[in-house]
User: Fold this.
Amino acid sequence: MSRINRPPLSLSRLARFASLPATKSATDPPKNAPKNDKTLVCVGTITDDIRLLNVPKLTVAALRFTATARKRIEKAGGECLTLDQLALRAPTGSNTILVRGPKNSREAVKHFGFGPHKGKRARDANLSARVAEDAREVSRSRGTADSVTWVQAVLVSHIRKLSSRGTTREDIAAGLA
Assistant:
C-alpha cells in the first residue's frame, strides 16, 4: 500500500476518536468518556503527541508504533497490537473502530489545484507557489537542462521570486537591463 494511503495518526487524535460515541442515542456515554471496550484500528503509524498530557487506556491495533507512543499507551494500561494479533482476536472485526490519519495534510497537497494561468495566480486560489529558495535547487529541478550554469540558475531563481510578487516582465527586463 502506498504511503499516501497510510497517513500517520497522533495519540491526541486517537484519544479523540476513542471518546466519540458510535451512535447518537440516549444510552451512550458522554463525549469525553473513553470507550475502553472498543479496539481502535489504524492502517498506518501511531505517533506520539507531547501536547496530550494524560493518555487514556486504549486498545490500539496498527501497522507501526513509534517507541514513545507505544510506551505511553502501555504505561496508561492500554494495549498495542499488530494487525495479525487483531485478526486472531477479532476475525470478524467486531468491537473495532477503523480510524485513519489526515490524508490531505501533506505539503504536496497544498500545491494541487488550478494551474498558473493568466489572471488565476496561486495566491488567488489559496494555493502555495512552488519557489526554489536556493539557486542550486533550481539547477537540479526538473525541466532544467544539465548544462545550466550556476549564474543562470541564480537569475532564474531571482526572476521567479520577482514574478511571484506580481512584478511584470517589463519591470523585470527594465531592472536587469
Notes: The radius of gyration is 25 Å. The first strand starts at residue 9 and ends at 10. The chain has a mean pLDDT of 77. Residues 5 and 138 are 30 Å apart (CA to CA).
